[in-house]
Specification:
The chain is built from 6 helices and no strands. It has helices at residues 2-35, 39-69, 74-108, 119-139, 142-171, 177-209. 83% of the residues lie in helices and 0% in strands.
């Protein structure tokens, strides 16, 4: 029975890393579709989201079966709970990639776009956070996870900077309102992906050290 449960845990981790790869690819391609003005790539991101949704349900069902039939305890239970939360975070990351791809389709058609502001820099930072968060889960590295959490404020600052610049461009009538709103949507979705990468990193700290980081819980002790 124990060996069978171990195989189920390994299968769960394998499915979760497949989910991570799909969500990360969708996010990367959504940004590429914007920077390269590639409508076909944006459409590909939107199509691929259905595969991510299907895998999320498969992982959820596997987790429900493990909790109902195996009654895991201690570290195994923390792993399964963390996997369930990370699974949901990855599905949401793919949803944000779709949002970015949809805005990219609109912005690609615009001839009035003066720049992408801090979006390329912001996307690089967010992608690094996501990759490091996933690596910290794969290799169970809590210190790498903690480093991810510390970067979130920088992405928040860039998001606010983008919003201020867009408002300035619209006020100066150098950028149409619709294009400006799409830039703000892209920036906001990047900020949300960074938040979700932080969530994943927090789950790694909980999994490896049984310590809660959410809402700065450690700092309040």
């Amino acid at each position: 029975m124990e060996r069978h449960f171990d195989r189920e845990l390994e299968s769960l981790k394998t499915m979760l890393m497949k989910m991570a790869s799909m969500a990360e690819d969708n996010f990367h391609n959504a940004i590429r579709s914007l920077v390269e003005r590639n409508v076909e790539l944006a459409q590909q991101v939107i199509r691929n989201d259905g595969r991510v949704d299907a895998l999320e349900l498969e992982i959820d069902n596997a987790i429900v079966d493990m909790l109902a039939l195996q009654k895991p305890v201690a570290s195994d239970l923390r792993l399964i709970i963390a996997a369930q939360k990370i699974n949901n975070d990855l599905e949401r990351i793919s949803d944000h990639a779709v949002n970015i791809a949809q805005s990219a389709q609109t912005l690609t058609a615009s001839a009035a776009l003066p720049s992408l502001l801090e979006i390329p820099r912001m996307s690089d930072m967010t992608r690094t956070m996501l990759r490091d968060a996933l690596d910290s889960f794969l290799h169970l590295e809590p210190e790498k996870a903690r480093a991810v959490c510390k970067q979130d404020d920088q992405v928040d600052d860039l998001n606010r900077s983008n919003a201020r610049e867009v408002i300035g461009f619209i006020g100066a009538k150098t950028l149409p309102v619709e294009e400006g709103l799409d830039l703000i949507r892209v920036s906001r979705n990047l900020e949300r992906v960074a938040d979700l990468a932080t969530n994943i990193a927090e789950e790694v700290v909980f999994l490896t050290q049984a310590r809660v980081m959410k809402h700065h819980a450690e700092e309040k002790k």
